[in-house]
Amino acid sequence: MNDIVWTKSYEDYKAEVGSELSRASESFVRIGYLLKVARETEILSGTEYEGNYLRFAEKEFGLEKTQVSRFIRINDRFSVNGNSPELKDEYKGFGTRKLGIMLTLPEEITEELTPEYTVEDIETIQQEVKEEEQITPLEFLAEQNTSDFIEDGWMFETLKKILEEQPELFARTFGKDEEERKKMFCPVEDTMYICRVPGLGKFMVKLKESGITITEARSLTKEHPTWQQFEEAFAALSQRANSQEPEKAWEEIYGREYPKEEPKKEVKEQKIPEKPQKTEKKKESKVKVTKNAKKDKPKTAAAVKHEEADGRVPESETAEERPVDDIQPEGSRGTDSTSGEADLGGTEGEPLSSGTGEALPGESTGASGGEGIVDSAPERNKYSARLENLIYQSKMLEKEISEYKDYQGATKTAKNIEQCIHAIIADLEQEEPGWKEVKE
């Protein structure tokens, strides 16, 4: 990064900060740069704010610490070279609310967005990414072990899931020619579908006239299939059915009855005085989330076997999945309810458990028989939840340090990790006498 140099006086500097705050939305990058000037240069020397740029911002311009942090971090992420007053060309036109939300998303995802995406579109993507992040590596491994499918490539698997959860789209596109089908899948330029394939993860499928990009939300890896490959995947899926009727073909492919529309309720006619009304065409959302994109934590193989022993049908055989529990505490990194910008001043990475060894919602403790990752895995015990907690906390710590640059939040997360480790050590020390007796 370039070193910041400031040659004007304090009065000129203060006037420029105030001027930027009153300008159009995209001046936030320059505001972040000017706040960096106060933090990293001697511009405040000789004033009542010397050595305290946060007090300067709050007293002179009413900016709270979280707002200052947001401006600076937006400058870090979206300015040219990460330390200049100029916004990168690819992010021009978004506005402060959108970029505030995008600040919490990985760059591999934000680079797929355009200014035409609405605040609601980007908030939807943010929520979907957050939900996938809440699934721990151990839970994802368990899902891979219990998912009964053979991967046929991302294009086929995502298309299959999208059409399963949007049967009306299948019915409209089945039997149509390539160009007509493309228009139906991509009603507006740059349409994104979000779906979750059990055992593979959550995918953002971006469709454009020029091509397709599939981004996996967990690993952030990408594939770029062509529209020809899209058609091949659609044809391969269609060939699994014998019927030429869309609804029956869908039933043959997915093995269940085509969902019927609920009958519309009759509305009594009322005489209303005629009044000229303005009719505005609702802008179609660019982001389309499949009904079951929000998933619950996967069951382990041992849990599935336990259900089979009881005579119950495992849920993995129903092509349905449960919604994910929201395990993030209040005050964690999310979206500011009033501004729509990401609340970057909050902390993230609160413990998933209280540190007492109690199970999380939806999980069982060792006392109930336990669950394993694979058939040969040991039963859950009082250490299981804490070890899973350590994995999650370590993941959050890495993000807070390397990606978010949130050192205050990282400090809190590190202390949570330290407390959890101390609790495990204390329990292990209590068990040492038993180990010694066995050894003797």
Can you put this structure into words, describing what you see?
- The chain is mainly α and 440 residues long.
- It has 3 domains: 10-92, no CATH class; 103-257 and 283-326, no CATH class; 347-431, no CATH class.
- The chain is 44% helix and 6% strand.
- The chain has a 5-stranded mixed beta sheet with strand order 4-3-2-1-5.
- The chain is flat.
Compile the SSE list and pairings:
Layout: H1 10-21, H2 28-40, H3 53-61, H4 65-78, H5 96-102, H6 107-110, H7 119-133, H8 137-146, H9 154-165, H10 167-173, H11 178-185, E1 191-197, E2 201-208, E3 211-216, E4 222-223, H12 227-238, H13 246-254, E5 287-289, H14 301-309, H15 384-403, H16 407-439
Parallel strand pairs: 1-5
Antiparallel strand pairs: 1-2, 2-3, 3-4
Shape: flat
Give the fraction of residues assigned to helices: 40-55%
The H/E string reads HHHHHHHHHHHEEEEHHEHHH
Q: Please provide the count of β strands.
A: 5
What is the number of independent domains? 3
Structural class of the secondary elements? Answer: mainly alpha
Amount of beta strand: 5-15%
Distance between the termini: 62 Å
Whole-number mean pLDDT: 75
The radius of gyration over CA amounts to 27 Å
User: Which sheet architecture does the biggest sheet show?
Assistant: 5 strands, mixed
Arrangement of strands in the largest sheet: 4-3-2-1-5
